Structures are given as C-alpha cells and as structure tokens.
Amino acid sequence: MRPFDYLRANALDDAASKAGDGAQFIAGGTNLLDLMKLQVMTPETVIDINNIDGLDKIEPHEGGLKIGTLVRNADLAADPQVRRAYPVLSRALLAGASSQIRNKATTGGNLLQRTRCPYFYDPAMACNKRDPSAGCAAKGGVSRMLAILGTSAACRAAHPSDMAVAMRALDARVEILGTDGATRTVALDELYQLPGETPEIETCLEPGEIITAVILPAPQPNATQSYRKIRDRASYAFALVSVAALVEMDGETIKTASLAFGGIGARPWADAQVNAMLEGEPPSEELFGRAADVLLADAVTDEGNDFKREMTRRALVAVMREATGMAPASTGTDKVEALT
Ligand SMILES: Cc1cc2nc3c(=O)[nH]c(=O)nc-3n(C[C@H](O)[C@H](O)[C@H](O)COP(=O)(O)OP(=O)(O)OC[C@H]3O[C@@H](n4cnc5c(N)ncnc54)[C@H](O)[C@@H]3O)c2cc1C
C-alpha cells in the first residue's frame, strides 16, 4: 500500500474543507481499503467520516424515509420501518456480501463501491476506468460478470451493488453536500454516469462532494415487492442477474410496475419503457416476454456473457409471475404495510 495521510473529520463542513484533489472519504472501508492494498486506488489523503454526528440515523421524511449515509447495511436491512414498508430493500441488502461486511459497510459506501470487473482490479491489465486511455483488457477476455446494457467501447464493467438496484426500483434520491455548503438531491440515474468515452467518471459527484443521505419516497402500501438474485454461489457472490420489483395490481390488471436490474447494467438498470408497457395490462407470459425483449433490445454481449439475455428474461418473467399472482408467492416476495 502506498503511504497516505489519514484525517478524521468531526463535522460535515470539516470533511468538505479537508477534501481536495487526491482525497477519498472512508466510511466502512470494505471496498476502499481493498482497492488501496491492490494499488488500484491510491489516494494521497483519506478522510474518515465515521465521527460525524447524525449521519447514522433512519428518520421519517416527507411520508418516506431518510437514511443517513453512515447507516450500516446490516442496520438498514434490519430496521423495522424498512422491513415493513420497503422489504425489497431489506432483501437486496441481505442478498449482498456477508454479515461481517454488512456490519461495517455503509449506505453511501455501498452506493459508491467500485465495479468488480476483474480487469479493473488487476493493475497489470489495461483498464480505461483505472487508467484513462489505457485500453480495455476485458475485450476478448473473461466477461461472465460484465455488463450487457449501458456499456461502451471503452468499458463493459457492471455496477455491483444489490442495495442500489432496490433503491432504483424504489425511485430513491441521493442527498449530496457540496464544498460550498449547498445541498442538492439527485435521482440514481443522475448520480451514476454511463461510461461512454470516459469510464473513469462514474458519478456526478464533484471532488469533495459528500453523500449525506438517501431519501426513499412514501411507500406504496398495496404493492408487492420482491428481490431475486441469481449468482454463482448461494452467498458471498455478486449478481449475475438480479431483479427488484414493486408491482401493484388493480383487480386483474397491473396498475403500476417498477422494475430494476442488477448484474447486467453499467449502472443499476431501469427502463421506463418496460415499466410503462406492463402498466394497464393483464399479466401474461406473452406480455412479460415482450417486456424482456424491450429491456434487452440494446444489449451487447459476447460468448462469455450472452447467457445473461436468457437469464434476465427468465428472471423478469419469474418475478412478474409471482408479483402478479400468476404463481404462488414464494420466499422473496412480501406485501407492503404502510409506515406507522
Ligand atoms: C467479499 C465481498 C463480497 C461482497 N459482496 C457484495 C454483494 O454481493 N453485493 C453488494 O452489493 N456488495 C457486495 N460487496 C461490497 C460491499 O457491499 C461494499 O464494499 C460496501 O457496501 C462499501 O461500503 P463501505 O462503507 O465499506 O465503503 P468504503 O469502502 O468506505 O467506500 C467506498 C467508496 O465510497 C466513497 N464514499 C463512502 N462514503 C461516502 C460518502 N458519504 N460520500 C462520498 N463518498 C463516499 C469512498 O471514498 C470510496 O470511494 C462485497 C464486498 C466484499 C469485500
């Protein structure tokens, strides 16, 4: 590991004033420290934000919830309000990593964890994300864990977070504090930038900006929520494909649908067209198949990850069958109760 300065921030303005070029905030450290040991990330300064008061709370907010950036993944998954009103989030969190890591990992750190593309993790390999204009060793390489949507010629890395997929389906917003002291909130699709020709730019965050919270909108009391993750091992493995779904029925018709996908996108993936074509329709295998066609229309695959097309299609159909009552509900699906 390269030498670096360690600074501890005691307040948000303190953190912002300490942050400059070459600085990284550290929260749980479960991703940053691994990357520093591999010299994939080499910050000159690491600013510890764990001492800042008030960032570890989950509070009611405008009918929904405000989740402080330092709320640990384990605490968020176990929170009674989350389990009752946003079970999709609780399930996505519990599908990620291990209990030890979830005890340490934070909400903000989980959102900003880096891709698990094996070429990004290996400094001996060319990677445009790690080293702009170096090239992409993933071309013609092992692509099993790589994205098939939102990729570019410069980068095929997938976003690894399970939590962010559920948050995308929930239409969560991220609260950001700027170095000028101003706060803004952005939707997840705005937070995460697609790679294009600049895969090293992953988010809309400016240097020194800090995520302070995630805001969940008011829950949908009548929606069925589910999270399904398909992976190589039953635990401790990143998603090959995952689906988060909130589906509300009106009699025999789908009233609202919000789907998001993990393992396949350069960012947690959602497609407004897919949701819209499901709404107002009676559930059927044929409808779900058409939705999968639309979702995957722009997918770019190679021999190593072409299986993700069929896997995504089957996951979408299975989740929608369950959520619309076409098949008996099984583990992974909950009815929402209103927040009290
Ligand atoms: C073996 C293993 C298996 C895993 N499996 C999964 C899995 O299946 N699914 C999954 O989703 N995840 C998985 N993870 C990833 C894990 O969830 C992340 O490492 C964790 O969520 C990162 O959170 P952290 O608080 O430790 O972040 P840190 O490592 O502290 O930070 C990560 C990044 O976020 C930045 N950052 C942190 N907080 C802020 C903030 N408030 N504002 C601005 N920047 C900030 C840091 O500067 C750093 O760049 C796994 C990790 C490991 C090691």
From TrEMBL:
<dbReference type="InterPro" id="IPR036683">
    <property type="entry name" value="CO_DH_flav_C_dom_sf"/>
</dbReference>
<dbReference type="InterPro" id="IPR016166">
    <property type="entry name" value="FAD-bd_PCMH"/>
</dbReference>
<feature type="domain" description="FAD-binding PCMH-type">
    <location>
        <begin position="1"/>
        <end position="221"/>
    </location>
</feature>
<dbReference type="Pfam" id="PF00941">
    <property type="entry name" value="FAD_binding_5"/>
</dbReference>
<dbReference type="InterPro" id="IPR036318">
    <property type="entry name" value="FAD-bd_PCMH-like_sf"/>
</dbReference>
<dbReference type="InterPro" id="IPR051312">
    <property type="entry name" value="Diverse_Substr_Oxidored"/>
</dbReference>
<dbReference type="InterPro" id="IPR005107">
    <property type="entry name" value="CO_DH_flav_C"/>
</dbReference>
<dbReference type="Pfam" id="PF03450">
    <property type="entry name" value="CO_deh_flav_C"/>
</dbReference>
<keyword id="KW-0285">Flavoprotein</keyword>
<protein>
    <submittedName>
        <fullName>Molybdopterin dehydrogenase</fullName>
    </submittedName>
</protein>
<dbReference type="InterPro" id="IPR016167">
    <property type="entry name" value="FAD-bd_PCMH_sub1"/>
</dbReference>
<dbReference type="InterPro" id="IPR016169">
    <property type="entry name" value="FAD-bd_PCMH_sub2"/>
</dbReference>
<dbReference type="InterPro" id="IPR002346">
    <property type="entry name" value="Mopterin_DH_FAD-bd"/>
</dbReference>
<keyword id="KW-0274">FAD</keyword>
